[in-house]
Q: What sequence folds into this?
């Protein structure tokens, strides 16, 4: 994970590890999270192992249930 100032830049592996840690801390199985989010267990497994490339919609569903938040900042590029 890369931190610039107070901003953390996360890759898919970092996001997956964060989701797994939070799920474990809540004593939820992947199957439980799947039922609560409507996201398949296979997708959750892939995300947690850094192999998935979830849409923001799927990621938001998972993070909402886990009590986490994602912040996306778009910066203006010089053209």
A:
């Amino acid at each position: 994970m890369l931190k610039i100032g107070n901003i953390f830049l996360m890759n898919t592996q970092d996001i997956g590890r964060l989701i797994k840690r939070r799920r474990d801390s809540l004593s939820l199985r992947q199957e439980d999270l799947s039922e609560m989010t409507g996201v398949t267990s296979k997708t959750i497994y892939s995300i947690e192992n850094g192999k998935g490339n979830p849409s923001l919609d799927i990621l938001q569903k998972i993070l909402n249930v886990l009590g986490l938040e994602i912040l996306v900042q778009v910066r203006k590029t010089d053209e």
Observations:
- The chain has a mean pLDDT of 86.
